[in-house]
């Protein structure tokens, strides 16, 4: 894209990239169509309107819908403006933006296994709360970068990828764990509709607010805050507010947030233990001796 920008053919560059993406999407669709799904059973739930809206009658699941609707509103109101801010105000190249996106993705991939282990031990709700509060800070971090001060985004990309991977993994499990097996399909469908509606509404509202605040500008030292920063602030406040509502949601078998943090500390120390990394044979030998001693007792 930077090449096409230099030769003033950005539209052609976008067309080529979108075309390549469409080709790979088609290939993925064809490959997916060849997968067998013989192990699944077809739902025998009657296709009545009462069944379609049955998730809304479930008080516990309705609370979950409200939480994720509010969360998607908080996310959607500013989501589309981060990329615009990078291009328009931070003057980042397409290459630099791609590197940032890749760093977020790699951080998420690296942390997926860790979050999966934590969720298995303490449940999804505590992970969701922890990550939601952390994600609430992300829009505020975007007050710091300037065109001549971009290195902070390297740290932010790792932070963002790590927390979003945990949140998404927990958010994927929550509607599944809190819906009845016999009606899970209709429950998940309603979940997708409600959360999607929240994001759509907030995206539209964000665009309206961006235009209303278009003339806003405040300079503080070497920083200039504009309408995008107001949207980031609103998004951060809404995220924090929703995170507090998540605390009030409970599910069977969950562990408290302090227990989760304690387990995370133990797991992290276990992963970075120098002795285990440099001298694994000594650790195994000691473990074998301890096990042998216990068995003899």
Q: Largest sheet, described in full?
A: 2 strands, antiparallel
Poorly predicted parts? 274-284, 291-297
Name the beta content range. under 5%
By CATH, the architecture is named Up-down Bundle
Lateral arrangement of strands in the main beta sheet: 1-2
Structural class: mainly alpha
CATH homology-level superfamily: MFS general substrate transporter like domains
Helix and strand sequence: HHHHHHHHHHHEEHHHH
CATH class: Mainly Alpha
Total beta strands: 2
Summed up, the helix count is: 15
- CATH topology, by name, is Growth Hormone, Chain: A
Distance between the termini: 69 Å
Q: Report the average pLDDT across residues.
A: 83
Instruction: Specify the helix fraction band.
Output: over 70%
Total domain units: 1
Shape: globular
| Rg, Å, rounded | 24 Å
Describe the structure in your own words.
This protein is an all-alpha fold and 297 residues long. It has one domain (62-271): Up-down Bundle (Growth Hormone, Chain: A), CATH 1.20.1250. It has helices at 2-6, 10-33, 49-52, 54-57, 59-79, 81-88, 94-122, 124-136, 138-141, 152-177, 184-212, 227-248, 257-272, 274-278, 280-296; strands at 217-220, 223-226. A hairpin with a 2-residue loop joins strand 1 (217-220) and strand 2. The protein has a two-stranded antiparallel sheet.
SSE inventory with pairings:
Blueprint: H1 2-6, H2 10-33, H3 49-52, H4 54-57, H5 59-79, H6 81-88, H7 94-122, H8 124-136, H9 138-141, H10 152-177, H11 184-212, E1 217-220, E2 223-226, H12 227-248, H13 257-272, H14 274-278, H15 280-296
Antiparallel strand pairs: 1-2
What is the gist of this entry?
The protein has 297 residues and is mostly helical. The protein has helices spanning 2-6, 10-33, 49-52, 54-57, 59-79, 81-88, 94-122, 124-136, 138-141, 152-177, 184-212, 227-248, 257-272, 274-278, 280-296; strands at 217-220, 223-226. The chain has a two-stranded antiparallel ribbon with strand order 1-2.
